[in-house]
Each structure stands twice: as C-alpha cells, then as structure tokens.
Amino acid sequence: MELDEVSRLPPVIPTRPNAIRMHVEAQMADIGCRPNVALEIDGVSAILDLVLDGAGCAILSRNALLNSPRPSAYTAQQIGQPPLRIRLSLATSLQRPATPVQKAALDLIRKTAPSVVAHA
Which domain range does residue 101 map to? Predict the structure, then answer.
C-alpha cells in the first residue's frame, strides 16, 4: 500500500511525539499529504482494541502486531515500496561514564539489533 493511500485512511494513532507517528507524518509531508487521524490514543493494546472495534486502522510495527494477544485478528500491509523504515539510534549520556553493566548491555544491543531488525 502506498503512503498516499494511507493518508486517506482513518488511523488510530499515538499522540505526538511518538516515533512512528512523527516518521509517518514527515514522510507524508514529503509527498504533500497528511494523516486523516480518527483517534489519538497512547498504548498499542488500546489502539489494537479500537481497531478491532472498527474505529479505524493502525500504523504500527509488525512486531507490535505479532506480540498482541490475538495477532490473527488483524491483517497487515507493508507501507510503501521500499517499505517505510525508522532508523534506530542508541543514545548515551556524555555527562556520565558508562558502568560495566551499561557497556555490556550496549555491546549486546549493537550485536543483536541488526538481526532482530532485519526480521521485523
């Protein structure tokens, strides 16, 4: 499904500054359109409940859908060709040195994230 088609749908979407919403709005602005927001709701489970009730559609990560209590209750479509992607960033403080546990966690994230994201 192309992004301009998505702009005509009524999404149930998180309030700003949600990362997915901000990315979708920026990409839509680039092509001269904007979302036709049905409802602003924070929380994936609440959004999915409203979608099931027919309040609109949702723009979520595939992982959010797959980890929902009833993923088979929904259909999912890729947005755009190539598909929309959000670049991830790892933020750390410049004010404090990282502890050994933080360093180990960061190392694990750097090693694991590429394979996890590739399957999302």
Answer: 88-120
Looking at the structure of the chain, the number of domains it has is 2
- With contact defined as beta carbons under 8 Å apart, do 10 and 37 qualify? yes
Residue 24 within any structural domain of the chain: yes
The DSSP output letter for 97 is P
Domain annotation covers residue 82: no
Are 12 and 55 contacting, i.e. CB atoms less than 8 angstroms apart? yes
Contact call for residues 38 and 55 (beta carbons, < 8 A): yes
pTM: 0.75
d(CA 71, CA 59): 14
The answer to the question of residue 79 being in a domain is no
User: What mean pLDDT is predicted for residues 10-20?
Assistant: 93
